[in-house]
Each structure stands twice: as C-alpha cells, then as structure tokens.
Amino acid sequence: MKIRRVALNIFAWTIALIWIVPFVGVFMTTLRPLDELIHGWWNFDSFHPTLENFASAWNHPTAALKKGMVNSLIVAIPGTLIPLMIATMAGYGFSRYRFPLRKSFFILVVITLALPQQTIAIPIFQLMNSLNLIDSYLGLILLHSAWGLPWITFFMRNFFTTIPVAAEEAARIDGANDIVIFFKIILPVALPAIGSACALQFTWVWSDFFLALILIYSPNKLLITQRIPLMRGVYNVDWGLLSAAAIIVMIVPILIYLLLQRYYIKGMVGWSLK
Q1: What global pTM score does this model have?
Q2: Which of 58, 91, 141, 175 has the maximum number of C-beta atoms within 10 A of its C-beta?
Q3: Do 5 and 137 share a domain, yes or no?
Q4: Do residues 24 and 74 share a domain?
C-alpha cells in the first residue's frame, strides 16, 4: 500500500508539473526583459525582474485593460446572477413538480447544451440587430443569460434530486407554502451547488471572446478579452506585454474561485450541522 501511495503521489506531482511549467514560462516572460529570455526563461544567469509589462498592459494607450476590466465586470456580474437565479428555481421545479410535457421540456434543455455557439452566430447577430441591441451591454448580458440557463438548470435539477423531501413535507404540514419552503429550506441547503455554478458561469462569461466579438464594436466598450489582440503590433510582437495582459485577465476568475471556495465550504458545514 505504501508503494502504491508513493507511486500515485509521484504520478500526481508529475501531471501537476506538466500543467504548471507553461504558466511559469509565461509568468517569467512578463517579469524579464526580452534579452534575458533569448536563451530560455529557465536560464537565470542574468535576472532583473520588473513590473513594467503589467503597468504597460494596464495603461495601454489604445487598449487599456483598466477600462476593459470595468466593461467586463458590467457584463459578467449580471450575466452570472440573472441565469443563476432563474435556473435555480427552474431546476427545483423540474425536480419536485409534475406538469404536462415536463420530460419533453427537460430533454429540450439537455439538447441545447450540445449547441455550439459558432453554428448560430448569424441568427444571433440578426436577432440582436432586429432588437437594436448591437454594440450594447444589455444584448450581451441577455445572450450570456440565455446561454447559461440550460446548463445551470440541468446542474441544479440534478443537485435537487439528491435532497430528501422529508424536510419539505414537514414544512408543508406546518403550513409553509412553496415560496417559503424554497427560500427558507432549499436555498440554504443549495449553497454549495449555487457557489459552484456561480464560479463556472462567471468564468465562462468573463473569458468569452466569441460572443463579445459578434456584438461589441465601439472601442470604449470593448471587453478585456477583446483588448489583448489589439496589443499585438503590426511589425513587432511584444510577448512580455501580451503575457502580462493574459495574466491580468486570469486574476479575476482565480479570485472568484478563491472567494466562492470559502462560501462553498461554509455551506457544506452549515448543511451537515443542520
């Protein structure tokens, strides 16, 4: 058993090292001048770290990330909360209530999960154009909300099916209606699943480039992911600048994961104590 445990640990650390080495290379590219990277980022004969690339990306003259971060937050926050609230209630409805065509509706939800964005890019543009929502944050928020509803509904429905109905039946005997049961009993228990869905949806909305490329055109409205390609020069590519910009974009989803991990554990502990 000890040999097996040691072998599994070695295998796990090897996989982790394979995943982290490229990121270390990108990070070293952001911190070191180009002349130190010619012979490889792993060569530390000369090491003069600097944060100049981060400052240049943050205050870029034509594609400043500080403005792009604000724009992305304007889209990502409502684009996460709106589908999360609606899909949580929809998932609970699919797991608890019996109504006509329930299975058909649920199958339709599952089918939409396999629909690639690229296949409906033209209908999306035509629909948003007819609604005068081109180059509008509202249009992008509605699009991300509609795209997140199916998978969050499916995710939450599967979670609610694992919760016993005994507490809900006891609450109904005491006179509680469905709204009180959902918000007072079910919602606190569902905090772990809600935290997980929130982290995933926010990360996908924040990292989106394709849908934003279809709808957002004004230079002052460009999201943070749209600004990184604009930093690429015509005759020269500043890899340190691009690497720093990529890491800045990664920081916010990482912080969201760290923040929601705490609430995830808190919800699990609260559920077990109750």
Answers
A1: 0.84
A2: 91
A3: no
A4: no
